[in-house]
Amino acid sequence: MNWYLKVLKNYAVFSGRARRKEYWYFFLFNLIIITILTSIDNGTLLFSQRYEMGLFSSIYSLAVFIPSLAVLVRRLHDTGRSAWWLLLALIPIIGTIVLLIFAALDSDLGPNEYGPNPK
């Protein structure tokens, strides 16, 4: 939970580096929260079949969009890549898979151009 809160405290910090632990715990907690909120949306009839989205889960997704982007940029920095690699997400399926692989890679040893090693 501390890693999730750390990302939220660094709401729009795109500089520096983020450890794998920080990124993946944030990812896990987001997944859990979205699942719970989608269940609540479905249970309270706030889920729109037409748009395939719910009220609470949509509001939450918008609220954490910038922190999610920021932690991914910092994670890319930790592996020695610039934020421009995020453009891979525009390539359907393959781009997302490549970004997930980058997020799973180990950190650069020692400092790199984006700062000291966060370990």
Structure description:
The chain is mainly α and 119 residues long. The protein has one domain. It is 55% helix and 3% strand. It contains 5 helices and 2 strands, in the order ααββααα. The chain has helices spanning 2-9, 20-43, 55-63, 65-78, 94-104; strands spanning 47-48, 53-54. It has a two-stranded antiparallel ribbon with strand order 1-2. The relative contact order is 0.19.
Summarize the structure.
With 119 residues, the protein is mainly α. It is 55% helix and 3% strand. Helix 2 runs antiparallel to helix 3.
Strand and helix layout:
Elements: H1 2-9, H2 20-43, E1 47-48, E2 53-54, H3 55-63, H4 65-78, H5 94-104
Antiparallel strand pairs: 1-2
Approximately what portion of the residues adopt beta-strand conformation? under 5%
**N- to C-terminal distance:** 18 Å
Tally of extended strands?
2
Strand order of the largest sheet: 1-2
Mean pLDDT: 90
Low-confidence stretches: none
Helix content: 55-70%
* Class based on secondary structure composition and strand pairing: mainly alpha
Order of SSEs, N→C? HHEEHHH
Gyration radius from CA atoms, angstroms: 16 Å
Task: Count up the helices.
Answer: 5
Total number of distinct structural domains: 1
- What is the global morphology? elongated
Biggest sheet, in brief?
A: 2 strands, antiparallel
